[in-house]
Backbone:
């Protein structure tokens, strides 16, 4: 795998259509599926639950 040309994380956006904080407040399960991994919000924390073959992760995730 190689890095794509389009950045995936933006410093700001023009509209927010979903927030995990609101969904968690209603008891909804929150799962985010990307081409590299599956993330879930469990016990109020973002956790990687699956990693695609050939992908590696290092460092720390910072969630605001």
Residues:
């Amino acid at each position: 795998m190689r890095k794509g040309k389009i950045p995936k994380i933006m410093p700001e956006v023009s509209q927010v259509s979903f927030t995990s904080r609101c969904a968690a407040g209603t008891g909804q399960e929150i799962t985010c599926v990307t081409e590299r991994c599956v993330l879930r919000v469990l016990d109020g924390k973002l956790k990687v639950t699956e990693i695609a073959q050939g992908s590696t992760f290092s460092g720390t995730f910072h969630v605001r």
Summary: The chain has a mean pLDDT of 80. Residues 20-25 form the longest helix (6 residues). Residues 24 and 43 are 10 Å apart (CA to CA). Residues 20-51 form one domain.
